[in-house]
From TrEMBL:
<keyword id="KW-0472">Membrane</keyword>
<keyword id="KW-0375">Hydrogen ion transport</keyword>
<dbReference type="GO" id="GO:0046933">
    <property type="term" value="F:proton-transporting ATP synthase activity, rotational mechanism"/>
</dbReference>
<protein>
    <submittedName>
        <fullName>Uncharacterized protein</fullName>
    </submittedName>
</protein>
<keyword id="KW-0813">Transport</keyword>
<keyword id="KW-0406">Ion transport</keyword>
<dbReference type="InterPro" id="IPR000711">
    <property type="entry name" value="ATPase_OSCP/dsu"/>
</dbReference>
<dbReference type="GO" id="GO:0016020">
    <property type="term" value="C:membrane"/>
</dbReference>
<dbReference type="Pfam" id="PF00213">
    <property type="entry name" value="OSCP"/>
</dbReference>
<keyword id="KW-0066">ATP synthesis</keyword>
Length: 134
């Protein structure tokens, strides 16, 4: 048995469980001990923490702009094309970042997709077309 399997099972059980998490954790502990894998608890914990970090990253949308942008503007932006195609029901957190090197526009990044509507990218593409460096 691998620690990652235990951590995945624990994550899914906690996600679908409605009620007392302490009781569920106690049952999980008893199952691991009964299976003779008590020595794996530190590995299971580390694997569970990595799994949580990965799930949290998947639920995060990162919006990068050249100047600070308000939450209201971000909400309006994410409703417009092409950004509305990036949103999934699992996205819960929006992180706003400022990167002055993109000159203008925005870059929206999720764990699976990146939509670059920055002036930096547009200017770079224009430069490459002018100089013939495709």
């Amino acid at each position: 048995m691998r620690a990652s399997w235990y951590s995945q099972a624990l994550y899914e059980a906690l996600e679908s469980h409605k009620g007392d998490d302490a009781k569920l954790l106690e049952q999980f502990k008893e199952t691991v001990v009964r299976n003779g894998h008590a020595h794996m608890f530190p590995k299971i914990l580390r694997s569970y923490e990595r799994l949580l970090a990965r799930k949290q990253k998947q639920a995060t949308i990162e919006v990068t702009s050249a100047t600070p942008i308000s939450e209201k503007d971000v909400a309006e932006l994410l409703k417009k094309a092409p950004f509305k195609n990036v949103l999934l029901p699992g996205h819960r957190t929006v992180v706003r970042k400022v990167d002055e090197t993109i000159t203008g526009g925005v870059v929206v990044r999720t764990s699976m997709m990146r939509v670059d509507a920055s002036y930096k990218r547009m200017l770079l593409e224009l430069y490459q077309k002018i100089t013939g460096n495709l």
